[in-house]
Amino acid sequence: MQLHPIDIFIILGYIAAVIAVGWLISKRASKNLDSYFLAGRSLPWYVIGTSHGASGFDITGTMWFVTMFFTYGLKAAFIPWTWPLFDRVFRQVYLGAWIRRSNALTGAEWMKTRFGKGAGGNLSHISVVVYALIITLAFLAYAFVGIGKFAEVFFPWDLSFWVLKSADVYAIIILSVTTVYLLLGGWYSVVLTDLIQFALLTVASIFIAVIAMDKVSPEALSKVVPEGWSRLGFGWKLDLDWTGLIDQLNTKITKDGYSFFGVVMMLMLLKGLLVSMAGPTPGYGMQHSLSVRNPREAALENWWMSIVQLVPRFLMIAGIGVLGLVFFSPEVKQMITADGDFDFETILPHVIQGYVPVGIVGILLAGLLAAFMSTFDSTINAGAAYIVNDIYKRYINPNAPAKTYVRFGYLCSIILVVLAVIIGVARVESIHDITLLITFGLYGGYVAPNILKWHWWRFNGHGYFAGMIAGVVAALTPFIVNPNINKIHILPFALGVSTIASVLVCLLTRPEKDEVLESFYRTVRPWGFWKPVYLKLLAKYPNFKANTDFGRDAFNVAVGIVWQLTLNVIPICLVIRQYQAMWIAVGVLAVTSAVMKFTWYDKLGPGDMYMSSEE
Q: Which end of the chain has the smaller Cβ count within 10 Å, N or C?
């Protein structure tokens, strides 16, 4: 593709601006670990929420969602449950406040709040560090594959070298630029990139939606999609037949495992509820919750991030998808190989290349580059924080000067990038495959110990360590033995192994000390099976009240999931002109927002308080 000079100027201007800003804030960011990895916990919730939402507006995921929308139509509004995107509803309602009360720097450091500093606490701490590094590398490999596929469509040069494909080389170049920016500014760089990205992509998303609605009539769209593509509802079977349109999509649906769509969505919902109850994995999601100023702002930050991420993103996804279906489908048929192969995950860059006007291409490419940078630098920053704070500082050099820790963070960031490149080149081809590996494999091994840590007083650090390590091994072993295994099948295996290991080892070892359990319960105030600890605290503090908010929190989560789903549905329905469904979704959004105003927002106390229903 020959980019217009205007588009090139916009892209180069963006790259120069972010590197310059990273250099300007480098002094402020490098003062100490808290500044470098959490921006000194000085930024307000709406800034962190915008950053958090923008970090999730990543280029790889957006390419994947465009493919899902292209294939499954309006039903693709449910497919974000794969991650699940409604995990932030749980953090909005109660988990964000619980996490922030620890005052920790990382998710691993948070473990001492729950399990103390003894043997169990140390083991739980180590297991979180191991998991954090594995999930960091998985996300980095995911980003690596996406940016390589994206860049290869736009740049005409064949940069293949040795074992590296052209896409790999493009990805390495872009990763290098992003890493320089991150090293300069730390978490300040992460947040700043996210804010720039949000502005660019919001503008680009609106333009693309308008272009799609202007160029594509409902009649033109209906001619290139199968019956049922524009309907939100579904039964146990998908019943989308692409025969005579793009036959290869029937094969893709079968390969994706979505032929029995209703069954898969029920599985995703169940898995999503469990993953969400476990809390954020030890990555940048945890870092965002820890970097706000108090627990109340942790709740508000997660509410705002849903709006920031979903509305502009699904305007773009729907716009690109509609343009691709009407204008790019004929080219898809020509590009399909004799073996029936076509990489549908490259639809987004192909559509931008051929059907978006000059100027908007530059803004869009700069925004998507920012999207990549924001996700990549958030992930690197979180991974490096675990190595520096939870390995080097805790076990190797606990009394080093602040500058030493920051410089070691630079080195760790570079090492993580190199490892991600190796994994991306050696083991990963498909965005969809690595998405399922993360969401059904690694998340499956994470669930059991991380639900139990919140809600069962008897659960200890030894059980947590056993559950986490067993879960990771159970998730990765099938993939290593057979990379082509259906990743969805890893979930029950990893979850079962992790649950058995967690409970068995916990029951064979002693509970945590009373002072550790009492401190955790008083500070975090979770609901669940905490009666023995509550009674001991009641004997010491007669006015102490238990958290009895389970019913209210469960209700708010259910309402919140429906509320969040409308944020996917409304932009898609607007672009594809399904106005009746759109207005129904707007009505549902209004009702659920009003309900949560009284049942959630009004219950948030001032400052660092979160009022119980008993208070």
A: C
